Amino acid sequence: MSSLAPNLLDEALGFDVATSTITDRWDGCRRVILIEDSVETSGAFVLHHFIKRTLSPLSSDVVIFLSFSHSFSHYDRVLRKMGCNLVQQTENKRFLFFDLLKFQCKEGNVESVTMALYGKVHKALEICCVPDTKTKVLLVIDDISLMEVATNGSSNQVLDFLHYCHSLTSQFGCSLVILDHEDIYTSTDLPTLLLRMECLADTVIKAEPLGTGLAADVHGQLTILNKGVSDVVGKKRSKSSNFHFKIKENNVEYFYPGSRT
Amino acid sequence: MADQICRVLRDGAVEGEHAPALIIKDCTDAPLGHFVFNHIFTRLHSYVSLTKSQSKGVVLIALSRSPSFYARLLNAQGDVLDTSDNWLRVLDCYTDPLGWKSKLSESGSISKVLVENSVNTTLCQNVKDLSNLTSKVIELGREMVGEGKERFAVAIDSVSEMLRHAPLSSVAGLLSDLRGHDQVSCMFWLLHSDLHEIVSVAALEYISSMLANVEVIAQVPNGQKFNSENLSLIEQNFRRGRFHVRFKRRNGRVRLMSEELSVDQSGIKFVPVSSEELVIAQSLVPKVQFNLQLSEKERDDRAKVVLPFEHQDNVKTTQIYDGRRSLSENQHENKHEAADDVQKTENPGNGEIIYFRDSDDEMPDSDEDPDDDLDI
């Protein structure tokens, strides 16, 4: 179970280290997390981390995964190396995969197609979230920029979809994780989609290359910005943090700058 | 100042005039607008429930937070809520703003949307139709206060959401229609300014009589990669901000004021700018271990010290340090010093710095001009 020991990323996200089960850690954490990565540093490993955490054998939590970028076998291979069998989890109905690689809207039917997609997600949540159980659901979208492409660049439709996903967080108490790329928006126009998602998000995770250039032992840095806006009732709010990471074959190491020789 | 805003909203409109309107503006770097909105909303709600205000009820148009969020917020303030609460009506534009859920449940794909019953909520399923929205708000307000002369307040939790669904002209139309309505006592709304063009923001500022602007307290250099240094600045901006308020009076007078706001677990606090700086200044001094203050005598003594290389304008010929002196000159100098020592004992008030070279090998620093500061 040592691979499930909380690391810097978990601490930064405010999972309670003291409690033993993952379910407790997720408890009360219904929130929106936005991962912003860049061309030079992919943020996909953070998604993998979330999947692995949620599908831990200690909990009964469920992942609903909307994939616009890769097929099921891609994630299966990655997660298998990390010690998590997605095929088995799919059979156990704990990993629901929506293959949206061929998702495409035609001119004029964008709203009806996105609405139908939302309907499927909503239905899946209804089935997972049986009242009076402790099951928490993590809804993951990988990635939102490809959804924008599939809706013929209509960012407003994407935002409508995201708003409805956001409404699910209060209706079913689920968490929402969105991946997007930071550097695909021009600086002249207002990068409205990204800014609006930042407004929506309670936590923003930025994956960037090092400011000082490439290094053999460090693959990039993660910055976690906890806004904690939704916490009105005095819940513990974690601070923002910044640390380096190194991606290895079957796990990721997180460490503070300068703590490695 | 936040109190002043609340008082203006509490006192409401004068007969035959537009209701006072407040725009709360924030940006992504200082996302504290919601806290200000929630603060003003809860204050107004408590004024209304204590019948201390002109308005007899509040209609909240919830676009970016669920009605249950506001129910929790008011409960946390100690206000007891139930559906018979006659001071609050929530027009829920959050749960199903485009009618997707109702369409899907009609076709049988999902189960029926449940209206949240923690507060008195009405579901709105088409936010694009703003004229319908206006009439719904007035309907809900009349439900609370009746058709007579009693008034109600209107709060909109994010006009930014509204602007995504409808053009600026219709949103501005809705705001000014409501403001001009004779049963509306006051209005306030939230706007995230960097999501919109400057013109849209300005247009909405014209409709309002008060502006509360939350700005960043620590400027983060643009386009810089994150590091531990600017992370702490960003962190600060999530907790604290500058709070600028602009009041526009009836006669056209504009008054600007500034405060600082900070948010912590106990809630939101407003502090005058000057006192905050004073606190920082006071809190910094005792942390230094050394005595940095000079007494009057010490200051006098310091002024008397003649610095080396300073043109001394006495009878002696000015000695220029060239870095290489012969042995004879050294002996000559030693004599001078002996004489100086005598002089010093006579006049102890004169300070002097005497410089001895360690040895003849010492060369002047190669990169500096030894004659740089001489007045010849």
TrEMBL record, chain A:
It comes from the Eukaryota. CDD domains: Elp6. Gene3D superfamilies: P-loop containing nucleotide triphosphate hydrolases. GO terms for cellular component: elongator holoenzyme complex. InterPro entries: ELP6, P-loop_NTPase. Belongs to the ELP6 family. This is Elongator complex protein 6. It comes from Lithospermum erythrorhizon (Purple gromwell).
From TrEMBL, chain B:
It is found in: Cytoplasm; Nucleus. One of its GO terms (biological process) is tRNA wobble uridine modification. Residues 328-376 are annotated as: Disordered. It holds the Pfam family Elong_Iki1. Residues 328-344 have a biased composition (Basic and acidic residues). The keyword tRNA processing applies. InterPro entries: Elp5 (IPR019519). Keywords: Cytoplasm, Nucleus, tRNA processing. GO terms for cellular component: cytosol; elongator holoenzyme complex; nucleus. Pathway: tRNA modification; 5-methoxycarbonylmethyl-2-thiouridine-tRNA biosynthesis. Residues 359-376 have a biased composition (Acidic residues). GO terms for molecular function: tRNA binding. Belongs to the ELP5 family. This is Elongator complex protein 5. It comes from Lithospermum erythrorhizon (Purple gromwell).
